[in-house]
Amino acid sequence: MASLWLKLFLISLIYLNVIAKSTPHQETEFECVSIDKQSALQHPLMKNHRIQTRPSRELLSILSTSKDDRIRKIDLKGSEECPKGQVPIHKPKTNNLIHPQQIPRAGRLLKQTRSRRVKKKKKNNRRKKDKNKLITSAVLSQKNKNPIHRPKLFTETHLHYAIVRTFENTTKKWRGAQALFSINKPRVVQNQFSKAWIWLNYIQGSVMSSIQFGWAVHTNLYPDDRPRLTTFWMSDNHQKGCYNALCPGGYVQIHKSIYPGLVYDKVNVPVGKQNTVHLSVAEDPVTKNWVLTVGSIMIGYWPRQSHMAEGASEVYFGGFAGISELSQPTTSPPMGTGEFPTKDLSRSCFMKQLKYVLSDYTVVDINPNEVEDYVDNRKCYGLMFYKYVDYDSRETLTFGGPGGQC
C-alpha cells in the first residue's frame, strides 16, 4: 500500500512538472529599482536634485477643483508593490524604439526655411521638394493664413490626429492640463500605435520641450495590444524624446505600484459600462516640477531642471495614431473605439472635463474661443467638440475612426 502511494506521489510530481513546462512563462513587465538609482536621476542636471515624493498643498488644491467625484475611483491598479525605497520601472518590448515624433527633422526644416528666406532665387522645384518632405503643425491650423515656420510635433506623413488645440499666435503660457479619459482598446497590429493624448509643448527657436500623457496601445513599446498608462517627453537636452521612465533627465517615478506602462484592466464596452480615468500633469507651484497624477494620486514627475521652466505655449487634446517604422506598409490604425464619433458617448471614445492650468495656477475649463479643432484625414478619422455639455462633463471631446488607407 505504501508503495502504491509513493507511485501516485511520483506521478503527481511528474504531472505538475509537465504542466509547469507547458504553461507559457509570463515575464514581469517591470523591475523594482532603488528610487534614487532610476534612469531619470542619472544625468548631470540631476546631481543635486531633491526627489519630490508627494505633491505640495498648493498642487493638491489644484487637483481638488474637478467637478467629478469619479476622479478618485482609480480604474488603473498596480498588481504588486515594490519594496520600500524602490519604484517600478517598465521594461520596454525593445530597446531600439523608433519614435515618429523626433524633433531633429523639424529642426532641419527650420534651417531650410530660413535658408529659403535668404536665398529667394532658388528654383521652385527645390522649394517644393523641401516642403513635401514633412508635414509641420502649420498644416494643423485651419485658420492660420500666414503660418510661422518653426519646429513642430508632427513631422511625418504617416501620423494621423484628431485634436483640439490652442491657437498658435497666443502669447499665453499654461502650467498644466487635465481631462477625464474613457478607456478604449482600438485593434492595432504590429508596428502600429493608437493613443488618447494630451500634449504640453514649449517652443523656443529651433528647440522644443514637450510633456505628453494619456493611454496608448503601442505594439512596439509593449508586448501586447492592451491600453496602458503612457507618457512621452522631449527636452532641450533630449530632442529625440523618450517614453515613460527610460531615459536620464526625464520622468521620475514615485508611486510604488502605479507606473507608466501599467495596463488599464477595465476597458469600455459599447452601450455598456463606461470606464474612465482622470489624468493630469501640472507644474507644482512650490517645487516647479511637472507632476503626473491619476485622480489625486501622485505617480511621478518631470524635474524642473530640464522641463519647461517658462510654462507650455501650446496645449493639445485628442487622438493620435500611426505606424512606428517607415519601412512598413502605411495602412493607418484605428483610433478610439475604431468607429467615427457620435453624439452617443457610450459608443465613442471621449475626453471630458477638458481643463488647463493658467500661469497663476488657477484651473479653468478650456476656453472654446482659444482653441480650434483639426482632423488631418476625415476619410479615416473624425472629431466632435462640445463647448459645454453639463455640469459634470463640462467641455467634452469625442474622436476616433477606423483608419485604413489614409
Automatic annotation (TrEMBL):
Taxonomy, superkingdom: Eukaryota
InterPro entries, alphabetized: Glutamic_endopeptidase, Neprosin, Neprosin_propep
UniProtKB keywords: Signal
Residue ranges of domain Neprosin PEP catalytic in the record: 154-406
Bias (Basic residues): 113-131
Entry keyword Signal: yes
Signal peptide: 1-20
Pfam family, any one: Neprosin_AP
Region (Disordered): 113-132
Protein's name according to its UniProt entry: Predicted protein
Species assigned in the record: Arabidopsis lyrata subsp. lyrata (Lyre-leaved rock-cress)
